[in-house]
Task: inverse folding
């Protein structure tokens, strides 16, 4: 959830008790004002009638007042509430009455003035309408205000976030623009410092990998060349060809592992970032050509169902992906076994015969996983890292002697 949306929610939660309290306050305020105005009107009317009596020495006409009670004296004016039946609505309607006395020709008369009051339900209805009107007005103003203010205040933050999102470790360090807000400037300085450290560490790691790879390859090449010479010259029996062959095999395997580790490092550092639209069908056919001879030598049955599959990824990694999958299917297959390949726009599946496996097949996707015949190397680990890089789904299952690996594209 975005910050601005959470701000709206919290604001509305705080407004609920404010609206309830405000409604009660508004109800009693309106009721107080109504009573005050009614009492003031009745008081003015009483004063007018008293003045009329002093001037004319005559009581007001009966139809101008609510009632006149003879021989009854009210010491001070008295306000009272009363309910009177309204024939039109057939309901009791509240009224406000004022009782006051006038001495006319030596006799006391109590005059009653009456004024209609709005009912409590009418006051409540008006208060609710007024409150909800203000609520809608406040909500609209709050929305516009928060949207406008947030858009301006948080603009530097979103710029920084966008810069960090687009940044690639292989690119030059981004430039963060200063703003008028100290917290965002502090965030930019912190992010800039972290990126500088990450960039330095990345360059040192990359240089180390490249230097280590170069040195290892150089010395491995020397060992391999001299081992080949020893193997060719082991005619007199002084040399042990089996031990020399073991050294040669270990050298070849170490060279392969070194190349695979360097490849994993490059993938992890996202050095393969030239993503284009690749037809995986063409890449798969090219990879198959490299293994056709080995497939024939081992007498493996190959079945294909290859359709076009356009994916956005690095072309080199696409080739590496299929090379490792096919190599794994051929290398860990049984003689006279089979390989089945299916490719479409949504997935790639490769099935092959092989040895049963009692453990979790997913563990075979890890680096240097151990199979029935020992270490399985890094081929499937490279496949997994490429799939993770492009958010491809990857499953591996083994049922009996049938191994099935499937990749689900986005």
Result:
């Amino acid at each position: 959830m975005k910050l601005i949306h959470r701000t709206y929610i919290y604001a509305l939660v705080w407004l609920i008790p404010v609206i309830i309290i405000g409604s009660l306050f508004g109800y009693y305020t309106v009721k107080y004002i109504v009573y005050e105005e009614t009492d003031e009107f009745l008081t003015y009317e009483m004063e007018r009638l008293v003045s009329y009596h002093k001037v004319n020495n005559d009581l007001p006409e009966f139809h101008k007042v609510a009632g006149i009670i003879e021989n009854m004296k009210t010491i001070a004016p008295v306000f009272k509430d009363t309910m009177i039946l309204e024939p039109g609505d057939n309901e009791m309607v509240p009224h406000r009455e004022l009782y006051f006395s006038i001495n006319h020709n030596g006799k006391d008369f109590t005059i009653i003035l009456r004024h209609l009051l709005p009912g409590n339900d009418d006051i409540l209805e008006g208060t609710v309408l007024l409150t909800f009107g203000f609520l809608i007005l406040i909500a609209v103003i709050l929305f516009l205000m928060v949207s406008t203010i947030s858009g301006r205040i948080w603009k530097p933050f979103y710029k920084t976030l966008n810069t960090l999102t687009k940044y690639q470790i292989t690119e030059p360090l981004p430039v963060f623009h200063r703003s008028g807000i100290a917290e965002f400037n502090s965030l930019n300085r912190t992010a800039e410092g972290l990126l500088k450290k990450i960039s330095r560490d990345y360059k040192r790691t990359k240089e180390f990998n490249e230097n280590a790879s170069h040195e290892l390859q150089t010395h491995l090449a020397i060992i391999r060349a001299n081992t080949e010479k020893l193997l060719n010259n082991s005619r007199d029996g002084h040399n042990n060809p089996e031990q020399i062959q073991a050294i040669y095999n270990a050298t070849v395997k170490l060279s392969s592992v070194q190349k695979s580790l360097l490849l994993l490092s490059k993938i992890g550092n996202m050095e393969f970032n030239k993503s284009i639209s690749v037809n995986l069908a063409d890449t798969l056919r090219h990879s198959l050509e490299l293994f056709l001879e080995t497939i024939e030598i081992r007498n493996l049955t190959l079945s294909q169902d290859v359709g076009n599959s356009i994916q956005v990824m690095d072309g080199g990694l696409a080739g590496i992906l299929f090379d490792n999958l096919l190599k794994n299917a051929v290398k860990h297959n049984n003689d006279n076994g089979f390989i089945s390949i299916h490719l479409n726009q949504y997935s790639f599946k490769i099935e092959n015969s092989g040895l049963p496996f009692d453990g979790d097949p997913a563990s075979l996707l890890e680096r240097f996983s151990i199979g029935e015949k020992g270490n399985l190397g890094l081929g499937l680990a490279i496949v997994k890292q490429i799939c993770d890089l492009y958010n491809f789904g990857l499953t591996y299952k083994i049922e009996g002697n049938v191994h099935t690996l499937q990749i689900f594209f986005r």
Summary: Residues 370-376 have pLDDT under 50 and may be disordered. Helices lie at 3-56, 120-153, 155-166, 182-233, 241-268, 280-297, 315-331, 379-389. DSSP finds eight helices and 13 strands in the chain. The domain at 275-408 is CATH 3.30.565.10 (Heat Shock Protein 90).
